[in-house]
Design goal:
The complex is a heterodimer. Chain A is mostly helical. Chain A is 57% helix and 2% strand. In chain A, helix 13 packs parallel to helix 15 and helix 20 runs antiparallel to helix 21. The chains are: A mainly alpha, B alpha+beta.
Chain lengths: 504, 447
């Protein structure tokens, strides 16, 4: 074989250079092919060359033997795996991976995992490629991998770094993304251990890493983190200091919150309202506000930004930020008054914008749903020039409180704006409420809702109301208008979700 | 029948992703005014934006589609939706007498088939004029002979001046020669010349591939010179390589091979302004492989959907004459409810290569050999993939193969049946089995 290989290589070289420069190589006299090749006796050298090459190349193709190859070092996958979803499931997955209805992929993956099934093996590579740049999907993907998916992902570094369960040894060697993934996982099970890892290498980390690691402590935040975060307030990099002060502002018992209360108490006085038998209406609750005069180094260290936001005076801005640090319920306890009364007094005050923004920031940081419930209706119709953001307030609502807070507001003209911020999976009852709002707004033909806004609601609504949607929405939309097209789209999404969950 | 059609398979007929989505969206009984079937065809009326509903129908035997909507996609979303509904649950379709608009279509299809037959008969009579026919044949023979002579001179020049010089030539250099071969009524040779241009630009190892292509062309020239001395089957191979076609109507009058055929893979590529669909079939009893070519003009959207990978049919195939025939025509087909069983396969890579070399002995110009191996596992080596058999021997997979990970995932590291095209150098994997289900590991339009 090596003889023919040698001869073939000589032929290729000669052909490359050209026979006018390189003569035809000699044909060996021994060997099986030699006999054939020596019989080629064309008088034209080029023709003789080509026929020789033809014979030799066919001979080599025909004589090819497979090479001995060691088996893969990876053990074959255990075949005793989770069951597969139903036969019609694949079409839904394939369609989503092609980019249609892709917002529903996470829901599909979680449903597969919840039913103890797994992604079919031929779809795994496409899915893993798709998910590798989307960290928000990793948990959902991991839950539906099955043994086969884990086995496969472990063999491809690109997938592995996204999906593998990180061990603590990765803390020393991993990339930032891998280390964050490890922290993320540890904060759920052993939050103190995660912080200890961060502290163990703190001095060697780059500023960007330090800021990212501090931010990652938001999950599972507790007073156990306070000493470390307090020390991070002296970090050289501003991002790190701000990340730390933001977390400390979420811990009512932190030293930072204590310092902020000490600063605020002399500045704010609250007078409770009194019902008077003599004066009509009595006295309303009110504030007496003194603005801070300086923003010193200590305040800056505690997260107060000296430079005001647009449209606000700097002193008022400092005050607003200070209020934003203290748990809002501190005030209702200190002043022994109802939250509503505090908000009412704030609304009547000269500094109402600053007070309300401060309370809103504080309510968000502390996830205080009672305060959020009072502030959200204000955000629907905010005071002029205030930066009162409904989106942020809604995001801060604990998932189990959203529906009870939003439902009473659905009768208002702000219903659509509110539903826009409900991105959780709706309950059956809430879904019915939403359908009623939609039917009303669609029939209203644009008075309370733009025609393009409502289709995404279909991603969240419960599929248990599919039939109700089919019977109520199309009749509300005027035939042949944009509305009926959008209703069709809405129902298509709902149907796809219905089918896709059914098929698993 | 509906057990044969899964939604997944129906969606594989969709011309693009947006059609698949649209078909899926429409696959809801509430969007259809009627849904009915009579066993061999299904039809329905779908309310669109217009006043009258669209009338959609499917002849299940091929399948063939027709819809009254103005869409240029084929099959259109209505046809896909109708088919999805049928695949999901045929019980939602009422058994009813066939309405006129369906029978009209079915009978016009039957009529067209008859017309085709009549035309071919007419042609047969036309060509029965022996003098005229002999003249045509002689004229073409002399044109081909002259063309082959030119080609030989050109090949000899290339070898004399060196392939390095040829490689730097523009595409038009090769194209001119290909055009000359078309003029000589040797279209097969013209394609082979274009393949030389591709070989010259095929990257690492191009010298070998170019010399190989040139030398096999020379071999064809030599064979043509002495065609009268060759055995009949080889004569047929040489003539079809040069570009003579075999009379398909005549072929269909001969007896073919009856078997249960599984469509095990397909490739779709463009050649001479035509879209070529190559479908590989495996005979479950005869253990033979066949390749069926379908040509559609590029301006036409449809690719014949009759041979959907993964489908099984009972049918008669007529093979084109040759020393080692693979190419075939489907003479007749009927759907079957059978499950595939006993797919042909070589037991090892070595055995596969042995059959390949026997085939090469019969037809040295063979380029795509159907390679099925019973128990292989995919192995990744650097950037390349291999498939390794139970004896620990392996053959390489084509470079830049995109579905290596998918192959590995399906195998789970365990041996599996694999079908692919072996070109003497590399294997292009096309399909495999998982739990009795055929899974494609090469997209039809991936080249």
């Amino acid at each position: 074989m090596s003889d023919t290989k040698y001869l073939w290589d000589r032929l290729v070289t000669a052909a490359l250079v050209g026979l006018e420069r390189e003569p035809m190589p000699n044909i060996p006299s021994e060997g099986a092919i030699a006999e054939v090749l020596n019989r080629i006796d064309d008088e034209t050298p080029e023709r003789r060359f080509l026929v020789t090459a033809a014979a030799l190349s066919v001979y080599r193709s025909a004589g090819r033997v497979p090479s001995l190859t060691p088996a893969s070092v990876v053990e074959p996958c255990d075949l005793d795996d989770l069951p597969l979803p139903g036969p019609n499931s694949m079409q839904h997955l394939v369609l989503m991976l092609r980019g249609e209805y892709q917002d529903l992929l996470a829901e599909w993956l979680m449903a597969v995992a919840a039913r103890g099934k797994r992604i079919r093996e031929d779809a795994l590579p496409t899915l893993l490629d798709w998910a590798k740049g989307k960290p928000e999907l990793w948990d959902a993907v991991r839950g539906a991998l099955g043994k086969r998916g884990q086995w496969l992902a472990a063999q491809n570094p690109e997938w592995n770094s996204a999906l593998a369960n990180r061990s603590e040894s990765d803390w020393q060697t991993g990339s930032r993304a891998e280390r964050l993934a490890l922290l993320h996982r540890l904060r759920i099970t052993e939050p103190d251990r995660a912080r200890e890892l961060v502290e163990s290498t703190w001095a060697e980390e780059t500023p960007d890493d330090r800021a990212a690691f501090v931010k990652s402590l938001l999950a599972g935040l507790s007073m156990g983190d306070e000493p470390f975060l307090e020390s991070a307030l002296d970090d050289k990099r501003k991002e790190v200091r701000r990340a730390a002060s933001d977390l400390l502002a979420r811990l009512p018992d932190s030293r930072l919150c204590g310092r902020m209360i000490d600063r605020l108490r002399p500045l704010i006085t609250f007078y409770s309202g009194q019902k008077s038998r003599f004066l009509v209406g009595g006295r309303k609750a009110c504030f007496d506000i003194t603005l801070p005069t300086v923003c010193d180094k200590e305040m800056d260290r505690d997260g107060i930004d000296p430079k005001p936001r647009m449209g606000m005076g700097e002193k008022a801005w400092w005050l607003s930020q200070m209020i934003g640090t203290v748990a809002p319920d501190y005030w209702s306890t200190a002043w022994q008054t109802r939250r509503e009364e505090i908000v009412e007094a704030a609304m009547a005050n000269e500094w109402k914008m600053e007070l309300l923004e401060g309370f809103a920031l504080a309510a968000r940081r502390h996830g205080d749903s009672a305060w959020l419930e009072i502030l959200i209706p204000i955000a629907l119709d905010p005071p002029k020039d205030s930066w009162f953001d409904l989106t942020l307030l809604m995001q801060a609502l604990p998932a189990d409180r959203i529906e009870s807070i939003v439902t009473p507001l659905l009768r208002s003209k702000h219903a659509i704006a509110l539903i826009n911020h409900c991105n959780h999976g709706y309950s059956h009852d809430f879904s019915r409420e939403v359908l009623r709002v939609l039917a009303r707004c669609i029939a209203g033909n644009g008075t309370d809702m733009q025609w393009w806004t409502f289709v995404p609601f279909a991603n969240h609504i419960s599929i248990s109301v599919y039939q109700e949607a089919v019977s109520s929405l199309p009749s509300a939309a005027k035939e042949g208008t944009q509305w009926s097209g959008q209703v069709e789209k809405f129902l298509n999404i709902l149907k796809f979700r219905h089918d896709m969950l059914e098929a698993i | 029948m509906s057990s044969v059609w899964t939604v997944e398979r129906v969606l594989s007929l969709a011309p693009d992703a947006s059609s698949a989505k649209a078909g899926q969206d429409l696959a809801s009984p509430r969007k259809w005014v009627t849904l009915a079937q009579d066993g061999s065809s299904v039809w329905g009326e779908c309310q669109g934006s217009g006043k009258n509903p669209y009338q959609t129908q499917i002849d299940l035997s091929e399948p063939a589609f027709k819809c009254s909507c103005p869409s240029r996609k084929f099959p259109c979303k209505h046809a896909l939706a109708l088919f999805i509904l049928y695949a999901q649950d045929s019980r939602t379709f009422s058994q009813s007498p066939t309405p006129p608009w369906v029978t009209d279509w079915l009978s016009s299809r039957a009529k067209r088939a008859e017309q085709r037959e009549a035309r071919s008969e007419a042609r047969a009579q036309e060509s029965a004029d022996p003098a005229a026919q002999a003249k045509r044949v002689a004229s073409r023979e002399s044109k081909v002979a002259a063309g082959m002579q030119d080609l030989e001179l050109w090949l000899c020049d290339l070898v004399r001046q060196g392939l390095a010089a040829a490689q730097s030539k523009p595409y038009s250099f090769w194209e001119a020669v290909a055009a000359r071969m078309v003029d000589s009524q040797a279209p097969g040779v013209a394609r082979a010349v274009k393949n030389l241009a591709d070989a010259a630009n095929s990257g690492d190892g191009w010298q070998e591939r170019l010399l190989q292509g040139m030398s096999r062309l020379q071999l064809l020239i030599e064979a043509y010179k002495r065609i009268e001395t060759l055995p009949e089957p080889t004569k047929c191979d040489v003539r079809s390589l040069i570009g003579w076609t075999q009379d398909q109507d005549e072929m269909l009058n001969t007896t073919g091979l009856i078997d249960t055929w599984l469509v095990v893979g397909e490739r779709v590529y463009e050649e001479d302004r035509l879209r070529v669909q190559r479908s590989w079939l495996a005979g479950c009893n005869s253990r033979r492989f066949a390749v069926v070519l379908n040509f559609t003009h590029l301006s036409q959207p449809q690719v014949d959907a009759g041979l959907v990978p993964g489908t099984l049919f009972n049918g008669e195939l007529v093979f084109f004459a040759g020393a080692c025939p693979f190419r075939a025509l489907v003479k007749s087909r009927a759907s079957t409810n059978m499950e595939q069983s006993g797919l042909p396969a070589h037991l090892s890579a070595e055995q596969m290569l042995q059959s390949y070399s026997s085939a090469l002995g019969l037809n040295p110009w063979l380029t795509e050999f159907p390679a099925a191996i019973a128990e292989v596992t995919p192995v990744k080596q650097g950037d390349r993939w291999l498939v390794r058999d139970s004896e620990g021997r392996s053959i390489p997979v084509v470079p830049h193969y995109r579905r290596g990970w998918q192959l590995l995932s399906i195998s789970g590291g365990h041996p599996m049946w694999l079908f692919g095209e072996w070109n003497g150098e590399w294997l292009l994997p096309m399909s495999t089995l998982a739990e009795g289900r055929l899974i494609l590991v090469h997209g039809g339009n991936e080249g």
